[in-house]
Amino acid sequence: MKIVLYTTEFEPITVLDLPIKLIELLEEHGGVRVPVAQPSKLEGPTPLDQIPSSIDLFCTKIMWHDGSLHNVLIAKDDATALSLTPTWLPGQLKTIQAYNNLIKNLIEKLQKD
Q1: Confidence at residue 92, expressed as pLDDT on a 0 to 100 scale
Q2: Which value, to the nearest 10 degrees, does the dihedral of the CA atoms of residues 40, 91, 70, 31 take?
Q3: Which of 4, 15, 43, 75 has the fewest beta carbons closer than 10 A?
């Protein structure tokens, strides 16, 4: 399920595609700890003690305009949250696919030369 992750100041950080089971755990326990992908070696050296291996996500409920309650996911460590693998909203997919195709074509042209 696609869900928006927010900072504690209610600023959107990223969109994540989370399994329903994880969302159920968030609702039940109020929070979970999820693993964070380690940076690739292409990004340069980083001391291991500065690379978080997990991030805590918290779930709170807000009342919607119709009176129903909806989950809001919050990460206190927004910098680390940016390293989570994002997903794209349906309205963004066409633009992202066009961008990926452009990059692919540029790489192919550079490899030919």
Answers
A1: 84
A2: 0
A3: 43
Q: CA-CA distance, 87 to 104, in Å (whole number)?
A: 20
CA distance 17 to 47: 29
Query: Could you list the mean pLDDT of each consecutive 10-residue stretch along the chain, which spans 113 residues?
Result: 91 90 90 75 54 82 93 89 82 89 92 80
DSSP string, 9-47: TS-EEEEEE--HHHHHHHHHHSEEEEE-PPPPGGG----
Place of tokens 């992202």: 96
**Cα(42)–Cα(97) distance, integer angstroms:** 24
pTM of the predicted structure, to 2 decimals: 0.67
Pair 2, 89: CB distance under 8 Å: yes
Helix or strand (DSSP H, E) at 8: none
Q: Three-state DSSP class for 113?
A: coil
